What we know:
It is built from 22 helices and 18 strands. The protein is α/β, with parallel strands linked by helices. Bound molecules: nicotinamide-adenine-dinucleotide and uridine-5'-diphosphate-glucose (UPG).
Amino acid sequence: MFRHPSFPASAVDSEDSIVDISTAPTTPDGSLSFSPVLQALKLQDALEDAASGGKQRTSSTSLDAVLHGNNGVKNICCVGAGYVGGPTAAVMAFQNPHVKVTVVDRDPNRIAQWKTRHLPIFEPGLDTILRIARDGSKRFSFTNEPARPDSLDSMSSTTSTSESECESQCGEHRDEIAVLPRTPNLFFSTEVSKCISEADIVLIAVNTPTKMRGIGGGRATDVTALEAVTREIAIHAKPGAVLVEKSTVPCRTAEIIQDTLQIHRPHQHFEVLSNPEFLAAGTAINDLLVPDRVIIGSSPTPAGYRAVETLASVYASWVPRERIVTMNVWSSELSKLVANSMLAQRISSINSISAICEKTGADIDEVAKSIGMDPRIGAKYLKSGIGFGGSCFRKDILSLVYLAETLGLDEVAEYWTQVLTVNEWQRTRFVRRVVKCLNGTLVGKKLAVLGYAFKAQTDDTRESPALECIKNLLEDCPREIAVFDPYCEPRIVREEIRKLVGDHVLKENGGNIEVYSDAYQGCAGAHAVLIMTECDQFRTSTPSSSHKLGARQTKVQKSKKPTDPRPFQRLEPTESEILALQKYLASTYSTSDPLQRYEEEPACEEGCEKCEGEMSKTVVLDDKREERLDWAKIAYHLQKPKWVFDGRNVVDMDVMSGLGVRVEGIGKVGWGGIGR
Ligand SMILES: NC(=O)c1ccc[n+]([C@@H]2O[C@H](COP(=O)([O-])OP(=O)(O)OC[C@H]3O[C@@H](n4cnc5c(N)ncnc54)[C@H](O)[C@@H]3O)[C@@H](O)[C@H]2O)c1
Ligand SMILES: O=c1ccn([C@@H]2O[C@H](COP(=O)(O)OP(=O)(O)O[C@H]3O[C@H](CO)[C@@H](O)[C@H](O)[C@H]3O)[C@@H](O)[C@H]2O)c(=O)[nH]1
């Protein structure tokens, strides 16, 4: 049973509040492999085995077979099909095959995209999860033995459906694991009220941007979308449904939701939980599959704890019990704002030190490394650069500042405001340095911007530091600003620049911004290259590796190769374990469906614009993601003096110097010497 920290043990243990532990699975050994679904499946296997007189040697895992579990949760509705709603719902459905999960949104285009293979967002690993939860999966089988290093003859360790059926009948392979098909349990819909009315749990994952005008404008959180959804829920939710804030909200928002519920349904009780999301763009699927923690805040009442149990039981399908942390609802709401503010504060802190480094000869990466080795400080979020962007940090700090202001805590508000001030200052400093190094004028010059998204490995361009720098650079009237990002489609970047800066700045309308799908074309003839994201593609090889000056490194270094997770301890592996095996086999045999479990992807309509127009583009983008830039080639085509302004400290100054390039990095003494 989950015990709320602020609730006395005696009260928790009272009859009213006791929740049957059997429905809230635990992970006794803390392993991710525990699954309530498969506990039930084990029983099913045992029964099947008994029925076959013990002759059945293949473990048969039907992920659809379990109808119960998860505290009676059979239907989850997630309102908001965005960066959070889509991936979160997909992972919940993937890990709970017997629960129907529907993502609803008022935007029909977004919903339509989620139903096709042209997903509205790019997240590594999302397609795999989606293809299984949304499209269902075929029966497949594999041997429960690690692949022998000497016999990597492609699919020797997996077998086709017919083979495994045969083997299970003749009983030859004791260690064969067969996994039965699963039917789709993830759906996307625009029928918001209908889906809300059917759900046991309603997740609210709508956008909560900064309020643009009126009281609190520029700081307070705009809860318009949240309010609209709350009203829908209040009218349509089924009695007893558990309502969950997934969106990042101001502290005490649960009160507003409760109030709305009271107005529309005065005679029914609903519990409102806070369950903030901590995923980061670019690593969303991994963050969701292996979260550091899942926070659930509730009211300190027996009904509140029961609601916690309900939601926790969904997570417990794949998250170890000790990582599910419960607290009061206000703490949970506030924790999210504080987590983001503290992470951003570290970045501003290290960036403030970078300015000192540039004027003293200290090196910011060396300083960050040395302080990060102190476990009390830790190494993460100490990478100095042109500052943080993204849809969350700025707005969440502003929300915290506004909260402090409304509470009359001016010093607190001022303290956190400073994190944002330093962030903006860091970008301005960078632009000033570019202009200064280029003799104080950009007139007639071409600048190439590498990286447009708010960080590497994502196509999310919200609050992009690159765009802020571009806006400032435009003031100095360069001849051209050429933009390239290996993760962003040029069409979308153009669209966004049009929306946020204006039509007139685009080359096609006589302006000076051009977006390229090829880095070399973008950089050709440039007077300076500006690196805005920490993309691996932009890195030079390290001096210790094989290169000689000017040598070309073509491939991005892949993250560590997955290892074979077999043998599994039990013959009923969890979806997480199967996923690990799939990843291992996919990387070993360079195939996307090594277990042959995918169903056909939904077909697009005849003449689908995206299929026709985008296929070639996707291939181009994929290639760009694989390749490391050939800096020798870029340097060769730069105007003299050749400049690179490295806003993320990803190129090696010595390598670049060997190519005749002057480099100015962040928090480093660059070509211009101390104090530039
Ligand atoms: N993006 C992230 O990485 C991230 C991470 C953690 C938390 N968050 C928080 O999660 C929340 C959602 O963020 P996001 O990035 O997914 O936003 P998003 O803009 O990508 O998606 C929000 C979706 O909600 C839909 N929506 C708005 N009002 C609606 C209504 N009345 N009915 C139905 N649908 C409606 C929108 O059409 C949109 O598709 C925010 O509070 C954000 O702060 C975001
Ligand atoms: O050492 C660092 C780390 C990050 N950044 C920058 O900080 C920004 C944010 O990066 P990151 O935190 O990786 O991405 P987000 O997707 O914005 O994720 C943050 O915001 C989400 C939305 O609330 C939270 O859920 C996540 O936990 C939190 O990390 C980016 O511009 C990065 O380039 C740095 O400059 N230096």
